[in-house]
Amino acid sequence: MSSPSSVEVTEPPRRFVSGYVDGVRPNHHMNDSKTKFVNPWPSFRSPKFFPLLFFILKTNFWPPRVPKNIKSLIPKQTPTWGAEPGNEGSAKATWLGHACYLVELPTPPGAARGVRIIFDPVFLHRCSPFQWLGPARYTDPPCAIAEVPAVDAIVLSHNHYDHTDIPTLRSLLTKSSSSPHVFVALNNATYLSNALRTPLSRFHELDWWEERLLRVPLPTNTDGPAVNAEVRLSCTPSQHISARSAFDRFHALWGAWVVEDLHSHKNVYFAGDTAYRTVHDGEDEDKVPVCPAFAEVGERFGGVDIALLPIGAYSPRAVLSAVHSSPGDAVRIFKDVKAKKALAMHWGTWILTAEPVLEPPALLRKECEKAALGPDEFLVPALGETVLF
Question: The pTM is what?
Answer without folding.
Answer: 0.96
